[in-house]
Design brief:
Elements lengths: L2 H18 L3 H18 L3 H22 L2 H19 L3 H5 L3 H22 L3 H11 L2 H6 L3 H23 L1 H23 L1
């Protein structure tokens, strides 16, 4: 998988795990790095590596301020991926331009927003549900396999909506469906070809 997408996936997993552990500071740090990665994916090739490096510096600063051993432990893995990404910058934008890619990245962006709102509301359980939902999407953005999209749409999406409904009720579940509907519809079109 593309190192930038791998890095994004790992930060989403880190955010999910932090939210599950009810560690708000760590969840905020992981989410901030995920946002930095997403922004870097949209930048010109010449600026992507520097943006990723700056994001990691900020992440390290957060880890130091929080004196968070888990975050400190993740820095080495993130540094390695950033080194790889810096040598392959632009790969995401140049090799993955399909409708499926745009839909998957759109869903990631929506999920990041929902995670941010959940953290701001101190609702780490909601943040964990949102992170659990989108943490595998970076892999779908990198591999255009119909089976993977079908699995996501049939299983992971259903699991996400079920968890939301059980914890927050049908209204919240319906609102989340509306947020992701456009992206899910575009992904479904990708499974029909």
């Amino acid at each position: 998988m593309n190192p930038t997408l791998t890095l994004l996936q790992l930060t989403l997993i880190g955010c999910r795990d932090a939210a599950y552990a009810r560690d708000r500071g760590r969840a905020e740090g992981e989410l901030a790095l995920a946002y930095c990665i997403r922004e870097a994916m949209n930048e010109p090739r010449s600026k992507q590596g520097q943006s990723l490096k700056e994001g990691l510096i900020e992440y390290c600063r957060s880890a130091d301020e929080l004196n968070n051993e888990v975050m400190h432990g993740r820095v080495d893995a993130y540094q390695g991926l950033i080194r790889e990404a810096r040598s392959e910058v632009g790969a995401t934008a140049s090799t993955c331009v399909s409708t499926d890619f745009a839909a998957v990245v759109g869903a990631i962006d929506e999920g990041l927003q929902l995670m941010k709102h959940a953290i701001e509301a101190s609702d780490l359980q909601r943040c964990e549900i949102e992170a659990e939902h989108i943490h595998n999407l970076p892999a779908l953005a990198d591999f255009e396999r119909v089976e993977s999209l079908e699995y996501y749409l049939e299983s992971q999406r259903t699991y996400y909506l079920t968890r939301l409904s059980e914890k927050y009720g049908e209204e919240t579940c319906g609102q989340a469906s509306e947020v992701f509907e456009k992206h899910w519809n575009n992904m479904m079109r990708g499974t029909e070809t």
